[in-house]
Design the sequence.
């Protein structure tokens, strides 16, 4: 299973989402490959935001090695699922993917918890507090747990 996490800058939300899901998948030896990207290119090559790194580390997850990159339309072919954080990300991914856009692969990440509600992961960049990043961590942790659980029940259903 190859999963891409997408946000705007690829320095706050999506690197956290990547680190959390990779950590959970590795704990269960699932062999999943998780990556992340931003719809914007301003932060290309940068490590995750200081507070994303700090909050992840508080929960035993090291994301310091991750580096930001911009989403490219080939990602739509290279990944099985693309989870976006908010509606702007969704629209940008659709526009940037052109004729490669596959609506079956792309979803708002919180829809794994509350299907079809289209709830958004708030951008902590503008708030810039430990509490804002911790709140995002908790949302993404719950979503990551559900992604793994849903996938396992799908495998079970198919057997
Ligand atoms: P992210 O947060 O999309 O969660 O990585 C942001 C990071 C940078 C900017 C905006 C949001 N920015 O405007 O540079």
Sequence:
């Amino acid at each position: 299973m190859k999963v891409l996490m997408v946000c705007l800058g690829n320095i706050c939300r999506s690197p956290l989402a990547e680190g959390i899901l990779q950590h959970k998948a590795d704990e269960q030896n699932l062999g999943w490959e998780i990556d992340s990207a931003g719809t914007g290119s301003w932060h290309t090559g940068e490590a995750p935001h200081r507070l994303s790194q700090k909050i992840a580390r508080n929960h035993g997850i090291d994301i310091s090695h991750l580096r930001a990159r911009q989403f490219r339309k080939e990602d739509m072919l290279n990944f099985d699922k693309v989870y976006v954080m908010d509606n702007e990300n969704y629209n940008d991914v659709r526009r940037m993917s052109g004729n490669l856009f596959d609506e079956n692969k792309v979803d708002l990440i919180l829809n794994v918890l509350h299907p079809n509600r289209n709830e958004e992961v708030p951008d902590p960049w503008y708030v810039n507090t430990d509490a804002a990043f911790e709140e995002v961590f908790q949302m993404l942790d719950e979503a990551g747990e559900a992604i793994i659980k849903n996938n396992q029940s799908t495998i079970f259903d198919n057997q």
